[in-house]
Amino acid sequence: MTDQEPKARSLRDLQIRKADGCDVDEEQFRVLRRENELFRAAIAYPKALLPSGVVAGMFEGADYGVGWAAAISCEKLAPVAHGDALRVESVLSEMRRIDEKRYEGQRGDLWMAQATSPPPVDLAYAIDVLAKEMIARHQLRIWRSRTGKLNEQIDKTQDILGLHAEYLTEGLGITISHDGGQIGEGIDGMPWDATVAVNPNIVKTGFPQIDRAAGGGHGRGELGVVGGGTNHGKSYFAQRYLVNQAILRQNVLYISVEDSIDLMYCRMLSDFSTPKLRPVHIRERSADPAVVAAAMDSMKRGLEGRVRYWVKKKATVSEVCNAIRRHRFMCGIDSVVVDYLQAVQPDRTSNNKTQDTSLAVNDLKRCCDDVGVALWLLSQYSREQYKDGAEPDINACKYAGDIENESELIVLLFRDDEQRLHAKMPKVKWAQAQGLRYIIDTDEGGCLGEWRDDFEEPKKREERPKGGGGRGR
Known about the structure:
Blueprint: H1 11-19, H2 26-44, H3 46-49, H4 62-77, H5 88-98, H6 105-116, H7 123-153, H8 160-175, E1 202-203, H9 208-213, E2 218-219, E3 223-228, H10 234-247, E4 252-256, H11 261-272, H12 279-283, H13 289-303, E5 307-311, H14 317-331, E6 335-339, H15 353-371, E7 374-380, H16 403-406, E8 409-415, E9 421-428, E10 436-442, E11 448-453, H17 458-463
Parallel strand pairs: 3-7, 3-8, 4-5, 4-6, 6-7
Antiparallel strand pairs: 1-2, 8-9, 9-10, 10-11
């Protein structure tokens, strides 16, 4: 860009210069192209992008800064539902209110048509790459502007300690600038509406034994772990949880990184069938077609489209997190079930399974906390915990990693010598009940029924001999 050329306000300005045969700074072209992509994504996914931490002043292209401010204003004036896009006409009208001369008439129409005509980029890409890159670039500009003079003194000053202290002070001011450097409020001033019957931060599980112990349900951003060996009921627990969510009129996402969706689908049909069908008979097409058709109709009425699934075998942690974000902002999910933890692949392996599992747990929980959904991870037991009759402990999960530390709730499933299914909760963060135990009824198809209180005295339970036997069948 020459001294005579005005600074480009948008990608369109550079495209016109290129068409006229003028030289264009390729780095500036790349930056404005990515700002254009982020602006389009904000129009398409305002609920997800506008609260991402990006502000109008971060844009190098002034037009995108005005457009971003206008989009925020439009969303505040007329909030849209999850998955709804902003009306382009409304955004342009707000831009004209901010700068009438710049965006008046056909000039504004042409700019907006060019800025929004390509399809928006993928939501996960916009959140994980474009928005984060925008914020990081802005922070780096702040560092450059505020520490430039200090950098020049590093090899010249004799007062090294004084310069070091000044550098740290300046750095502290920069690091807290992203949130305005605010000091935390007094907890006694925290807003709390005691008249509201339902806590919006809680997602009920539909299992009274769990909800009661956990203070009403599973908190958004909290981690619940369901452990079990082969044929110990993990996936049937997930199936019952999915149905419970639909009954409670809550939206839920089921993510399978190991099994095909056929398995869960046949279990669902079995649960809704009358008379009861076994999932294996549905899968092999030996069940009565009329009963299966009736079960399908009953399932559609019962689930009401509230249960969604995403299947990708050996998906990476990032792929799972991106799926959670997409479904949160596009479908308004309240909770997610990942089946199962040890099958989720690390983005970059450390060649240490326990460490990889810890990183996966941390990343998945952080993602769910960011977007406000409750997280359930199904976890396989290590091989020595597979024995029927052997009661698992809190560290039973394979490559346990940070599961115990990061989880708010742990449910361990196991079968006794008589193949009865048990559940115990060795950890409940709300501490209303620690170590609760239940016997779970199951039908011939394996579907979970009632949880019955096990009133056996703890001392007797400890003295009961642990049975042997092979792995769960």
